[in-house]
Amino acid sequence: MKLYEYEGKRLFENYGIPIAKGWLWQQLSEEARYPLMAKSQVLTGGRGKAGAIVEVTDRSKVVLIAQDLLKKTIRGHKVSHVYLEEKIDYDRELYLSIILDRNKKRPVLLASGKGGIDIEAVSRQDILTIPIHPLMGLQAYMKRKVSYFLQVEFRKIDEIIDHMWQLFSDEQAELIEINPLFVQSNGEMVAGDAKVIIDGHTKPSANIDYLPRQKGSFEEKCSDIGAVGVELDGNIAVITSGAGLGMATFDLVCSKRGTVRALVDLGGHVIHDVNAAEELIKEVRRLSPKGILFNFYFQVASCKVTATAIANILGGDSLPVVVRLRGIDQEESENLLSVFPNIETTHDLEKACERINFKLEGPGIAHHR
Amino acid sequence: MPIIVKEESKVIIQGITGNVGRAFANRMIQYNTPLVAGVTPGKGGQYIQSIPVYNSVEEAVVLAHADTSFISIPPKFVKQAVLEAIDAGIKVIVIYSEGVPIHDSMEMVHYAKAHQVLLFGPNSAGVVSPGKANVSDIHDTILKQGKVGVVSRSGTLTYEVIEMINKMGLGVSTVVCLGGDPVIGVQHADILQRFEKDPETDTVIYIGEIGGNDEMLSAEIIKQMTKPVFAYIAGMYAPEGKRMGHAGAIIRNSSETAAQKQQILKEAGAVVLDVLVDFPRSYSDKAVINK
C-alpha cells in the first residue's frame, strides 16, 4: 500500500526521522511560520514539475492556493488533500532510501549526493548501493560508508538511517524514500519528502492518522470480494481460476486480435462461495464488457460453485458468454449452463478464445486487421 | 531417479487438521504418496485415517523420519512453521499458503538457503513426480508418467500444460510450481540444472511470467543444457505498471517485459512460445529438425 506524504511524515515523526512542522490545510495552526510550502497529496511522483507544490508567502494567500491545488489532477490522480509545511532553508539536497529488492531478495540501502531529482535520472556512479542481509540487518559499517560517500557528519546520518531501518522492519515496508533530505547550514538534516510503501498483507504497527482513500475502483471492489481484478480498456472480460492461467488466457485472446476489458483472478476464497462469485460477476458486468470469457480449471474446488453463479447472474442475458471449464464436477456444471442460449461451453482453451472473439466480431474478423 | 520428491520421501503436512490439509492428506493416502505424519500444534495424538498427528515437526522427524513438508496454514503463521521445519531437519518444504508477508518470505528464503533446504513458494502449488510422490495440488488422476519436465511459477497454468502434454500422448517426469509471489525460494534456474541431470527427463517446459529477473539467471543455465527447453512467458500483452494477478507479475522496467525475457531465452537456445497452445506444433517441428 502506497502512503500519502502526509502519512509517511507521521510515520517519520513516530520513528524519530526529522521533518518540518506541518499541518493539513483544515488544521493549519495559527503558529505556522511563513513562508509555507503547500503540497498536493497524491499517490504519484513528479509533483514539483506538475506545479502541485506551491510556496505560500503569507497567511492571506493560503485559501486561494489550497483551493487551486484541490482542483488539480496529477497523472490521473485527483488531489484530495493539501499539506502545508514550514519552508526549510538548506545548503544541500541528498537522497536516502531503503528498498526491498525482489530480485536480490533483500533490502538495499541507497544514498546519493544528488537529491531533489528523480533517482532514475541520477547516473550510477553517483548512487551508493548497499545490500542488507535480511537475517543480519543493518550494520554500522554501512552507515559509515554512507557518511563518507555523502560527506556528512556520521553522528547525524547514523541516527536517520537507524530510524529508517527500524521503520522499514517494524512496518514491513517495501520502500522508504527520503528525497530530498535537506542539509541545513548548521549541519542539521530534515526530510523534505516521505515516500513510503508498506506490505498490504500486514497491519501497520504504528498508530497514525490515515487519510481517507477514494474507494470504488474496480480493483478495490474485487479485492474486497477476495479476488484480484485489473481494469483495461478493451471489449472482453476474462475471468479465470488463477493468476498464471489468467495471463495465459489474456495473451491468447489478444493474439487472436481480441481486446480485454478486465482480467479477474477468482482467488482461493471466491471459488468456494457462490455469493462472492455472484458479487464478483456483477462487478464485472458493471464495466459493460461486450462479452465475458470464463476459464477455470479446478483441482481441489468444485466447478459447480462458479457455474451456479454464472447461471444465476448471466443466464438468459443478452451478453455473450463463453465458459471453458475443467476439473471436478465438470459435466454437471456444463449441464447447468448449457440451457442458456447466451452461454456457450467448451473444453478447449484455444477454441474458447476463438469463440468469444467470434461472438463479438462475427466470422472473418479474427483473421485480418 | 526422480528429482526432489521420490518414493522414499517421508512427507508430512503442517496444518493437516485444517480443511485444506485434510483434503490433501486424504488424496495422498488414496494415491500412495508417502505421507508419514501431520503436524498441528495442540492436536497431537489425533489421526487422519491411519496417519498420526504430532504437536511439533521435531516429533515427526524423530518418530516418523520426515524429510519433506507441505505447509497449508494461515499466512501469518507460515514463518514460524517454516523455521520450525528447517530447525527440525526437514530438507524439502512446499509453502502452499497464499498472502505471506514479504518480509517473512525474505527471512525464510535466506534461512532455508543457509541450511541447504529446498523451499518452494510461498504461494506454490507444489512438486510432483507422478507415480512416485505428489506434494502438489495437481490431481493424481490427470498425471501421466513420461519424459517432460515442467517448471512454472503458476500452479493453474501447469494444469493446462499437463492437459496439453496428455493430449499429445506424452507424460511428465516432474512438475515443479515455484509460486507467484515476488520473493520465492527455489527459482527456475535451480530446477533447470536438476532437469538436465535427471535421466527421466528429456524435454523441459519452462513457464515464466512478467516481472523480476528470473530469466537472466535461467538463460545462463539454458546455454549449457543439452535437453530442449520450450519457454512461454505469460503476460506478453500486459500493460506496464499493472499488477496482473500474481503479486510478482508487474512490469517495472523494460528488462522485465515478456518480449525482453523471450529475447534473452531465445538467445540462450530455448524454443520460445508466443502463446502456450503453440507447444504441440513447436514440439513436432523440433522433433523433425532433430531427425
The CATH architecture assignment of the largest domain in chain A turns out to be 3-Layer(aba) Sandwich
Shape of chain A: elongated
Name the CATH superfamily classification of the largest domain in chain A. Answer: Succinyl-CoA synthetase domains
Order of helices and strands of chain A: HEEEHEEEEEEHHEEEHEEHEHHEHEHEH
In helices, the fraction of residues of chain A equals 25-40%
Low-confidence stretches of chain B: none
Q: What is the CA-atom radius of gyration of chain B, in angstroms?
A: 19 Å
Cα-to-Cα separation, first versus last residue of chain B: 27 Å
Low-pLDDT residue spans of chain A: 364-369
Under CATH, the topology of the largest domain in chain A can be stated as: Rossmann fold
Beta-strand residue percentage of chain B: 15-25%
* CATH class designation of the largest domain in chain A: Alpha Beta
Most extensive interface, chain pair and sizes:
A-B, 43 and 55 residues
- CATH superfamily of the largest domain in chain B, by name, is Succinyl-CoA synthetase domains
Question: What is the β-strand count of chain B?
Answer: 14
Q: Tell me the Rg of chain A in angstroms.
A: 26 Å
How many helices of chain B in DSSP terms? Answer: 9
Could you walk me through the main structural features you see in this protein, from its secondary elements to its overall organization?
The complex is a heterodimer of chains A (369) and B (291). Chain A is α+β, with helices and mostly antiparallel strands. Helix content of chain A is 33%, strand content 26%. Chain A has helices at residues 5-15, 62-70, 140-150, 154-170, 218-225, 243-255, 267-270, 274-286, 303-314, 330-338, 349-361, and strands at 22-24, 36-41, 53-56, 73-74, 77-78, 81-86, 92-101, 106-112, 127-131, 173-183, 189-191, 195-198, 228-231, 236-240, 260-265, 291-298, 321-327, 343-346. Mean pLDDT of chain A is 91; it is low at 364-369. Chain B has two domains: 11-120, 3-Layer(aba) Sandwich (Rossmann fold), CATH 3.40.50; 127-290, Rossmann fold (3-Layer(aba) Sandwich), CATH 3.40.50. Chain B is built from nine helices and 14 strands. Chain B has helices at 19-30, 57-64, 78-88, 102-114, 156-167, 188-197, 214-223, 258-268, 279-290; strands spanning 11-14, 35-39, 47-48, 51-54, 68-71, 92-95, 118-120, 126-129, 133-136, 145-152, 172-177, 203-209, 229-234, 271-273. In chain B, the strands form two sheets. In chain B, strands 3-4-2-1-5-6-7 form a seven-stranded mixed β-sheet. The mean pLDDT of chain B is 93. Classes of the chains: A alpha+beta (369), B alpha/beta (291). Chains A and B meet through helix 6 and strand 15 of A and helix 4 and helix 5 of B.
